[in-house]
């Protein structure tokens, strides 16, 4: 009997080869599938039975989260009334490794009669599902990773990988951006990592801003009143006092005490980038500057800590 680790290595090797084998099978049909799905004005309706169905549920979720409206439709439920979930301009994306799954064949026949376009992913280009589809994508593999050659393993991995390839290609074609991703993922760590500086910065009346010729007593008052630790930074004040303890800061102006070239960041940069700059430079605030707007805002370290970006 082989060790568990030996079995695991073989499974991973077989599944890795299965995914790699899809690369040489990509052809014009893949381009056509991406074009059809990108042109879809409705939803991409994903369907499959058993293990393929579970994979297509994940593919539907990936499509929906990357800019392509999609949902899962169970083929058995579809032919018993759930066909009503299909709307005009929808496109079906179906998967069956054998291409002969009874429920999916029946659904494909109905879709053909209704004129609903279908992209099918199967391991057999001559199968019923492949022939009924408008576009066929091959997920053919050499062997399953199951020692008995029975349980869907490498075949479902290949189907999942091809589904991801479709989703990412569609995302690229549609110009799906970080802002789009953030809009669809407002919660959780992913959403926090994509928050921009403009979403957390202090601006307007919250800014501790004074004119260059403001006397230091007024500058310090503004600094204390706005509670961000800056106007003239507390670090600047310490450095000035350490350099000349006899110097009377209260007789100076803001311009005489300020740092001439503070660290800045653009409002469109990610909040995580602002955190990195602060940590690398051991500072607690960044001035947010934009072309034509010398001080658009201020982002403070405490605001970023609350986002739990680390």
Task: Give the arrangement of secondary structure elements.
Elements: H1 4-23, H2 28-39, E1 44-47, H3 50-65, E2 70-72, H4 75-78, E3 91-95, H5 102-114, E4 118-122, H6 128-132, E5 135-138, H7 154-173, H8 178-184, H9 188-193, H10 197-200, H11 216-226, H12 234-243, H13 254-257, E6 264-265, H14 271-281, E7 285-290, E8 293-300, H15 301-305
Parallel strand pairs: 1-2, 1-3, 3-4, 4-5, 6-7
Antiparallel strand pairs: 7-8
Helix pairs in contact: 1-7, 2-7, 3-7
Q: Can you walk me through this structure?
A:
- The chain has 310 residues and is an alpha/beta fold.
- It is 48% helix and 12% strand.
- It contains 15 helices and eight strands.
- It has helices at residues 4-23, 28-39, 50-65, 75-78, 102-114, 128-132, 154-173, 178-184, 188-193, 197-200, 216-226, 234-243, 254-257, 271-281, 301-305, and strands at 44-47, 70-72, 91-95, 118-122, 135-138, 264-265, 285-290, 293-300.
- Helix 1 crosses helix 7.
- The protein is elongated and about 90 Å long.
